[in-house]
Design a protein that fits this description.
Number of helices: 8
Shape: globular
CATH superfamily of the largest domain: Vaccinia Virus protein VP39
Oligomer: single chain
Structural class: alpha/beta
Helix content: 25-40%
Order of helices and strands: HHHEHEHEEHEHEEEEHEE
Low-confidence stretches: none
Strand order of the largest sheet: 3-2-1-4-5-11-10
Distance between the termini: 37 Å
Radius of gyration: 17 Å
Strand content: 25-35%
């Protein structure tokens, strides 16, 4: 089974992937980032929404949100998170390689390094094309991930991330001529050891911009964080925004 279909990954490592700190950072970004300055009522599709890390705060800020995810575990967590926040979010169990609602959204977001999962590069491009086809005229796509330039600066070694009653050891390595990277995670909690690994495509700003153009987007811009700053040697993320072309 591909790693992204393994619910043991999403459930077993959720406290690292979707920690309370990351949830707070997502909420702060939605509240304060110029990249999320959407007017009330804007229709947002959240591709690979996970446990509603961004979907819930987007809904709190007046967006009409649809979240799509392949994982039943993540959708269940998303439902609980949205219920706890008292916000309505439509949650759909679907594969982003297949999910399209022609012209139904004003904004599509793909956040928290949820792009580049698929071994076949054409399938990753299809995700962007599905986003484009789901957008109304002049609709906007926003993709957030760890860019190749940032990854090259930060990768290497093993880091230990404390979790409740345990620790997760995480290491990243360059793979396939720096077209992809492999992350290996080992959770140690008492007498229990759980291991997983995942391989994603990694994109430079130029490469991801070219993919946006190939998928039918125009006015493509790159940013180095949610503050809207430039993608330069101080960048923490690679955030790319494009407008649906006709």
């Amino acid at each position: 089974m591909p790693w992204y279909e393994d619910d043991e990954l999403w459930s077993g490592f959720a406290e690292v992937i979707f920690s309370a700190d990351r949830a707070a950072q997502a909420a702060d970004a939605v509240a304060g980032s110029p990249l999320f300055g959407f007017p009330p009522g804007v229709r947002v599709l959240d591709q690979c929404c996970g446990p509603a890390l961004f979907a819930s705060p987007l809904a709190r800020h007046g967006c009409t949100v649809t979240g799509v995810d392949l994982s039943p575990v993540m959708l269940a967590r998303a439902g609980k998170a949205c219920a706890a926040a008292g916000v309505p979010v439509e949650l759909v169990a679907a594969d982003v390689r297949e999910f399209v609602r022609p012209g139904a959204f004003d904004v599509v977001v793909n956040l928290h390094t949820s792009f580049g999962y698929f071994d076949d590069p054409d399938e990753n491009l299809r995700v962007l094309r599905n986003a484009r086809d789901s957008l109304a005229p002049d609709g906007v796509l926003l993709v957030d991930l760890l860019g190749k330039e940032v990854y090259a600066r930060t990768a290497g070694g093993t880091r230990a991330v404390p979790v409740e009653d345990g620790v997760v050891f995480m290491s990243d390595t360059v793979h396939a001529d720096f077209t992809r990277y492999r992350s290996e995670w080992t959770l140690v909690r008492g007498d229990t050891v759980r291991h997983t690994e995942l391989t994603l495509w990694v994109y430079s700003a130029a490469e991801l911009r070219d993919l946006f153009h190939a998928a039918g987007f125009v006015d493509v811009e790159c940013f180095g964080d949610f503050d809207g700053g430039p993608y330069d040697d101080t960048a923490e993320r690679l955030i790319v925004r494009g407008v649906r072309g006709d």
